[in-house]
């Protein structure tokens, strides 16, 4: 049975054909996906790499990964300082076992999606495994793709003193670099698994030297991952660049977590250092269960969620039925 309902004046066509054009035209005014408030009133300005570097010892820096447009919109609305398009996208989004499986093309694609949100947050793209190991020229070309094609405003790469030549080459191309020491997931096989690093004195001292070298060469910040809290604190004291911890204790200059972990979008098996601030996976399952039940009951879609024609057109159509 076709039910007729008057079409609002702004959507009815002059010919009365019932052609309503845009499927959204009958919807309630859309809620803006991107809050423009901060842009309109200029309350927050764009975060830059030098701006982050200058925050050593200042207000703590909040960083989260994001891999797509909606994630970046959400992170930016929350006032997050830096969005990292991490190679953790391999595990979190693509279901891969290690980050070794993700390539440059994929990180470029995810970075581009993040950048379309035009975030105030600084957008940092991860350099995947083997994109900075084959010489300086190759490294700069790859970092350049993240900037030119992806829109990244800085790049991150894993490793200590061994990576100084390629870091210098990227910096020389005017691309800000974020360092990453400690548990570096791209070294999973060399480390013999995902193990907390720097637990013995020699290794801890080596890591401090690595971090100092990264800071001295000009990295605007350094991720410290998977180390004892005291080492996170010592490195933070020793280096000029702000440190961003993940599983490195509370003393670093900032903290980073994976988007899906912080929102509880995973399977509930989170590493020790994760604090889920929501249980969105459970909420999503419950919502989809309700959606399914409504479909089965016939209560979705309702009248308000359906399109209608004028009484005359309905009457004409019903004549034939
Ligand atoms: O890839 C990533 O998400 C990272 C952060 C966890 C630091 O490197």
Backbone CA Rg: 25 Å
Please count the helical segments: 13
Which strand order spans the largest sheet, edge to edge or round the barrel? Answer: 1-2-3-4-5-6-7-8
Q: Major sheet: size, sense and barrel closure?
A: 8 strands, parallel, barrel
Strand elements, count: 8
Bound molecules: 3-methyl-2-oxobutanoic acid
User: Strand content of the residues, in percent?
Assistant: 5-15%
Shape: elongated
Q: Mean of the pLDDT scores?
A: 90
- Helix-strand sequence: HHEHEHHEHEHEHHEHEEHHH
Q: Give the terminus-to-terminus CA distance.
A: 9 Å
The helix fraction, in percent, is 25-40%
List low-pLDDT spans. Answer: 1-20, 28-42
- In terms of structural class, how would the helical and strand content be classed? alpha/beta
Keywords:
disordered N terminus; 13 helices; alpha/beta; binds 3-methyl-2-oxobutanoic acid; about 35% helix; elongated; about 325 residues; 8-stranded parallel β-barrel
Report on this structure.
The chain is α/β, with parallel strands linked by helices and 321 residues long. Helix content is 37%, strand content 11%. The protein has 13 helices and 8 strands. The protein has helices at 37-41, 49-53, 69-77, 89-92, 104-115, 136-148, 164-172, 188-191, 201-217, 229-238, 259-262, 280-297, 311-319; strands at residues 61-65, 82-85, 122-126, 154-156, 177-182, 221-225, 243-246, 254-257. It has an 8-stranded parallel beta barrel, surrounded by 6 helices. Helix 3 (69-77) packs across helix 5 (104-115), helix 6 crosses helix 7 (164-172) and helix 9 runs parallel beside helix 10 (229-238). The chain is elongated. The chain starts with 36 loop residues before the first helix and ends with a helix. Residues 1-20 and 28-42 have low confidence and may be disordered. The structure holds 3-methyl-2-oxobutanoic acid.
């Amino acid at each position: 049975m076709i039910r007729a309902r008057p079409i609002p004046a702004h959507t009815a066509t002059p010919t009365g054909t019932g052609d309503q054009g845009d499927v959204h035209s009958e919807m309630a005014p859309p809620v803006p996906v991107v809050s423009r408030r901060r842009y309109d009133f200029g309350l927050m300005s764009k975060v830059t790499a030098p701006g982050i570097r200058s925050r050593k010892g200042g207000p703590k820096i909040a960083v989260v990964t994001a891999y797509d447009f909606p994630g970046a919109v959400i992170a930016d609305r929350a006032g997050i300082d830096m969005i990292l398009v991490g190679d953790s996208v391999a595990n979190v989004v693509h279901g891969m076992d290690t980050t070794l499986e993700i390539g440059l093309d994929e990180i470029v694609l995810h970075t581009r999606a993040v950048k379309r949100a035009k975030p105030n947050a600084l957008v940092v793209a991860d350099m995947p495994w083997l994109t900075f190991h084959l010489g300086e020229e190759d490294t700069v070309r790859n970092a350049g793709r993240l900037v030119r094609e992806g829109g990244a405003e800085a790049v991150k790469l894993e490793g200590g003193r061994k990576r100084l030549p390629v870091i210098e080459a990227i910096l020389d191309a005017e691309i800000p670099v974020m360092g990453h020491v400690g548990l570096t997931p791209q070294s999973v096989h060399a480390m013999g698994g995902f193990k907390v690093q720097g637990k013995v004195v020699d290794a801890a001292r080596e890591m401090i030297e690595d971090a100092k070298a990264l800071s001295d060469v000009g990295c605007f910040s350094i991720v410290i991952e998977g180390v004892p809290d005291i080492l996170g604190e010592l490195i933070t004291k020793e280096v000029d660049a702000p440190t961003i911890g993940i599983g490195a204790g509370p003393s670093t200059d900032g903290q980073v977590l994976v988007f899906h972990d912080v929102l509880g979008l995973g399977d509930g098996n989170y590493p020790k250092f994760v604090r889920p601030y929501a249980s969105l996976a459970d909420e999503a399952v419950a919502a989809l269960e309700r959606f399914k039940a409504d479909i089965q009951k016939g209560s979705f879609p309702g009248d308000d969620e359906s399109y209608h024609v004028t009484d005359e057109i309905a009457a004409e159509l019903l004549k034939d039925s």
